[in-house]
Model the fold of this input.
Amino acid sequence: MQQKEIINNGLWHNNVVFSQLLGMCPLLGVTTSAENGFWMGAATLLVLLGSNFVVSLVRDWIPKNVRIPAYIIIIASFVTIIDLSMNAWLHDMHMILGLFIPLIVVNCSILGRAEAFASKNSVMDSLIDALATGAGFMLALIALGSVRELLGKGELFGFDLFGANYPDVLMFILPPGAFIALAFILAGVNILNQYSKKRADSAAQPNPSPQGQPS
Amino acid sequence: MEIDSKEVRKMIFALVAVATVATLALGFTEQLTRAPIQEARKAAMLTLLGQVLPIHDNDAMQDSFDYTLSDKPTRFYPAFNQKGELQALAWQIVAPDGYAGKIHMIVAVDVFAKLVAMRVIEHRETPGLGDGIVDDQVWLNAFAGKDLVSTHWNVKKDGGDFDQFTGATITPRAVVHAVQRALVVFQKNQKALQKKALSEQAKIASTQ
Done:
């Protein structure tokens, strides 16, 4: 597979959130602010990098029958390493994200990348895939966190944007706001995808295929 | 499906190898992060103690001691002034009846059984409604200097001295009552606590 295609897939076409709707638990749970979204995304990205790297490294030595338990051990180890490291060096953020860091283990997009990609591709491609997929997930977390923080508190990354008179729309900080904001973001992504598809189609129309078959 | 023993051995070997490497990596990480995690916890606790205790001249973490308060072992953090006189004690309390579960707090009470300050450490109250207990400075400052005799330990809705929040009465009610309970048990144990604080400090001072 072309490396450009891998990046495109991870970031957009096959985005964990926008197209696969995976990883909903941390996505809805921690995105009360853009900063929380960023650190949750960063932690997931690091776990994904580690697990994709190791899985692709050992892909020829792990017998097919026991590959899933082996991948789980690898993923769980990286999650624990990230959990301990954040507790040590990012203590305040670790307190905020709390249980959601250990729960990265069960983020199915990570096992999904190990099983669907890293177990079949070279180390280099797997690292690129991890970076792209992780960045795509991070993008979604920051997008949702930004919308909720902006509407709920009038701030972005902690900076007050709308001034003291902004009436905080509390609902966007509460769980229902997460669902509503996500729905609008997904709708926006779909409109964008439809628009770009239409443009690609209309660009293709002036040159119909030589056989002239109706499509 | 038939699996020959060679295959089985290969599987076992692979899993054992993966688990061994994972265990080693985790052990190494744990060793590496143990001290920083303790430091970070200590720093967080020191910040908190700095917020609730009056200006003091000792290391409240180092001079802390355990005392059994109504059947619960509790860690107390004492504040001494320059002359080595006990100023206040801080300890953690829990309000079990918050709107969304337990509210963990730290209170500091001075030797006259007056509350110095109260801060919330951990809670799951509704953001924007109940979480004023964390950062509403006006509300938090209302606790300073309150004691059992001259204060009505209730929210205003219940005829007490403390404001409730718009849309959130249960949260401040739970906090106010928990602080009151803390003052009550402090008064009951005050003599013993002060004695223990002084003797513990003398013990630490003599070992240095």
